[in-house]
Every structure is written in C-alpha cells, then in structure tokens.
Amino acid sequence: MKLNKKAQVYVFAAIVLVSVVIASISAVKNFTSYQDAEVIENFKTELYYVINNALFNNLSVVHQIDNFTKSFKAYALTKNYDIDIFLLYYNSTLLYVVNGFDDNVTLKIPGKTLYLMQGSYDLGNVNNITVVIGNDVYKFNLGFNEYKGIIKYVKGNNVFVHKI
Predict the structure, then answer these.
(1) Is the pTM of this model over 0.85?
(2) Per-residue b or e along 105-144, where b marks 16 or more CB atoms closer than 10 Å to that residue's CB
(3) Which DSSP symbol is given to 102?
(4) What's the pLDDT score for residue 125?
(5) CA-to-CA distance for 37 and 93, rounded, in angstroms?
(6) At residue 2, does pLDDT exceed 60?
C-alpha cells in the first residue's frame, strides 16, 4: 500500500507527536522522583532540629515528634502526598515511639511484644527492634541518640515505602 504525500505528512506528524508525549511522560517521572526525595530529606532534616530543640529546652521528645509528624503530614498533603510516618527514637534509657500509621503496628524487641504504639517505654539497651505494619516486617538497630523509622506515602495509584 502506497501513501500519497499528504498521508505521509500526517503519519510523520503522528510519529513526532507520540515521541513528544512519551518524552514528556519520562521527564515527569524523573521530576516526581526528585520531588519524592526532596520531601523525604526535608522531613529528616526538620526532624533532627525538632529532636534537638526538645532536648535543649527539656521538652517531651515524643510529644514534640508527634506534633511535628502531624504538621508534616498536613504539609505533605499540600504537595499531594498522603503520608504515614512511624518513628523510633532512643536516648540511652528510653525508646520513644511515634505511630502515625492507620494500619495495625506491632513492635517486637527481645522478650517483649508491644501493641500500644504511642508513648515512651523504658527498655534499657535497645537492639534488634522489629516493626510489623500490616504484612510488612522491618528490622532496626538503634544506637544512642539515634532515630529510625518508616515513611509510607501514596502518590496517585502508587504506594512507596522508605526506611529512614
């Protein structure tokens, strides 16, 4: 089948248009990845300052972290992120746990299983912490004045989980 010149121009224009659309979609995916990393890094940076401020001013660390995670979740919604945050913070004698997940969460340490997730627990030397959220299992080792956690966010139809 031979196309006339007018048909060839339309076929060529359609190929160019499809190429431009595919290139645009690829560029958007890369931008979204950068934006995701920026939101996660922003949270980690600000959390560091929240913890230090609470310690310096002799405030409740778990209360300050809880307030911050709620505020950050509201901020993230303005960026079209639906975020759940789970954090562990250890300061030599207390393990602070802040649970911002809607899912069921279980905290396991050697010899104990905790289902009450918000608050502080006097656990002594904390190592080998296992967190179970839904069907997902995460393992953490915490050192002195260290925090770790999980950020889960929904963007469109995709769910992303990051350990921090």
Answers:
(1) no
(2) bebebeeeeeeebeebbebeebeebebebeeeebebebee
(3) S
(4) 65
(5) 32
(6) yes
More confident site: 25 or 40: 40
> Counting every residue, how long is the chain?
164
At which residue do the structure tokens 């006339």 appear? 4
83 backbone dihedrals φ, ψ, rounded to 5°: -110, 140
Nearest partner of 143 among 92, 67, 99, judged by Cα = 92
- Mapping DSSP onto H, E and C, the string for 19-77 reads HHHHHHHHHHHHHHHHHHHHHHHHHHHHHHHHHHHHHHCCCCHHHHHHHHHHHHHHHHH
Distances (CA, A) of 51 to 38, 56, 130: 20, 9, 23
Cα atoms in the Cβ-side hemisphere of radius 13 Å centred on 27: 6
Q: pLDDT category, 28, cuts 50, 70, 90?
A: very low
Q: Which of 80, 77, 71 is nearest to 98 (CA)?
A: 71
